[in-house]
């Protein structure tokens, strides 16, 4: 008599039958087939990694000024230099820039000096920075080998500060404000939307009228009024959290309506009625049965809300009613390019942070679209 041998279930790949996979595994399989969204996931991960390792990845101190490099254009990276005998050898370097001032117009112009090169390398010494508490380092991922040299890969601003370093450091504020704002929207939206859809009646009417009132207020005037109430003497960290709350005030309303619609469709289902008859409290029914039933949809909605939060912070800071210097964010960097003269003389002030915003927002939108399609049970 032989006994049947059972083989373990196969791993989650494209050959695994759908009936042996859980809902999260099925969602992950459908998401991987969305090539653009899958690539965007890696891109978003890289952007957040850049935010975490900001001081290490920045070539120099983002607040360091240099009056000899005001509005210096971007410097390119070169790989070969000529020897004295006419040959060529490999050397990672950048050309030293010479500044000239036109006495008639008092405009600065820069041109590379072929005789002076700045050797570049990886894991070089530079400006010291703190990592955690008193623990710090002076190592930077890429930059000049000599700590006294300065290279501006993305150019410099009106005070001679490195744009690349400021973009890398600003990533921490601009990307984190989206996560904090979405966290606030998640808590408020799920709580009020769930109560509204689960209980109905006068509670539902009260919450829905509040949502309609908030959505009827013009966004920019509301933000301007709230931002104007922030005292100028507040420290940057406190201002950061207040701006995050301002940005989140409208974001939770759309999520609350989506949660309310889901609760209305689920509260009379058989498994919810069975849970109530089994003696579970309202909170247990919501936490154990209703919210997990559409948690994937909430994740997709929140992913799509992150770029809206980032754009809102950028808009507020650009208009001068959000974060203010010395806080570094993509919005405060764009504020440097508010006039035509600056854009004409130093277009990199607009192009560099603007490109980062476009890339981050597009990647988050593609990621959200992929998660939404993967969370849709009717999608194939």
Distance N to C terminus = 44 Å
Low-confidence stretches: 1-11
Task: Work out the helix count.
Answer: 13
Assembly classification: single chain
Question: Which value, in Å, is the CA radius of gyration?
Answer: 27 Å
Largest sheet: 4 strands, antiparallel
Give the beta-strand count: 4
Strand fraction? 5-15%
Order of helices and strands: HHHEEEEHHHHHHHHHH
Which strand order do you get reading across the main beta sheet?
1-2-3-4
Helix content: 40-55%
Instruction: Report the principal-axis shape.
Output: elongated
| Average pLDDT reading | 83
Helix/sheet category? alpha+beta
Polypeptide structure, described:
With 380 residues, the chain is of the alpha+beta class. It is 55% helix and 14% strand. The protein has 13 helices and four strands. It has a four-stranded antiparallel sheet with strand order 1-2-3-4.
Topology, please?
Layout: H1 23-33, H2 35-52, H3 54-57, E1 78-82, E2 88-101, E3 108-132, E4 135-144, H4 163-199, H5 201-216, H6 219-228, H7 236-266, H8 270-277, H9 282-290, H10 295-319, H11 330-334, H12 340-345, H13 348-375
Antiparallel strand pairs: 1-2, 2-3, 3-4
Which descriptors apply to this entry?
single chain; 380 residues; alpha+beta; four-stranded antiparallel sheet; 13 helices; 14% strand; disordered N terminus
Brief account:
The protein is α+β, with helices and mostly antiparallel strands and 380 residues long. It has helices spanning 23-33, 35-52, 54-57, 163-199, 201-216, 219-228, 236-266, 270-277, 282-290, 295-319, 330-334, 340-345, 348-375, and strands at residues 78-82, 88-101, 108-132, 135-144.
């Amino acid at each position: 008599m032989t006994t049947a041998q059972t083989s373990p279930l196969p791993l989650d790949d494209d050959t695994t039958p759908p009936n042996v996979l859980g809902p999260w595994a099925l969602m992950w399989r459908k998401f991987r087939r969305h090539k653009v969204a899958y690539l965007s996931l890696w891109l978003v991960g890289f952007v957040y990694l850049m935010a975490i390792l900001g001081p290490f990845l920045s070539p120099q101190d983002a607040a360091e000024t240099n009056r000899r490099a005001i509005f210096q254009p971007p410097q390119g990276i070169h790989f070969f230099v000529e020897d004295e005998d006419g040959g060529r050898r490999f050397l990672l370097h950048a050309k030293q820039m010479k500044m000239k001032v036109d006495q008639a117009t008092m405009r600065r112009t820069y041109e590379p000096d072929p005789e002076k090169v700045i050797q570049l390398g990886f894991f070089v010494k530079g400006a010291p920075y703190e990592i955690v508490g008193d623990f710090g380092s002076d190592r930077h991922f890429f930059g000049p080998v000599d700590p006294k040299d300065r290279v501006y890969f993305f150019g410099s601003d009106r005070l001679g500060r490195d744009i690349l370093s400021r973009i890398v450091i600003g990533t921490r504020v601009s990307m984190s404000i989206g996560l904090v704002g979405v966290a606030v929207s998640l808590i408020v939206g799920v709580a009020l939307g769930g109560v509204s859809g689960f209980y109905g009646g006068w509670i539902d009417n009260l919450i829905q009228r509040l949502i309609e009132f908030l959505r009827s207020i013009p966004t920019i005037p509301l933000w301007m009024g709230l931002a104007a109430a922030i005292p100028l003497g507040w420290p940057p960290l406190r201002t950061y959290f207040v701006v995050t709350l301002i940005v989140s005030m409208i974001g939770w309303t759309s999520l609350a309506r989506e949660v309310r619609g889901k609760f209305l469709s689920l509260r009379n289902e058989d498994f919810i009625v069975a849970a109530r008859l089994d003696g579970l409290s309202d909170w247990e029914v919501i936490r154990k049965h209703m919210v997990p039933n559409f948690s994937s949809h909430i994740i997709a909605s929140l992913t799509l809300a992150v770029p809206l939060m980032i754009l809102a912070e950028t808009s507020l800071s650009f208009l001068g009613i959000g974060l203010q210097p010395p806080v570094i964010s993509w919005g405060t960097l764009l504020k440097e390019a508010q006039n035509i003269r600056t854009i004409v003389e130093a277009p990199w002030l607009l192009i560099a942070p603007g490109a980062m915003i476009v890339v981050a927002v597009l990647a988050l939108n593609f990621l959200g679209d992929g998660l939404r399609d993967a969370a849709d049970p009717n999608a194939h």
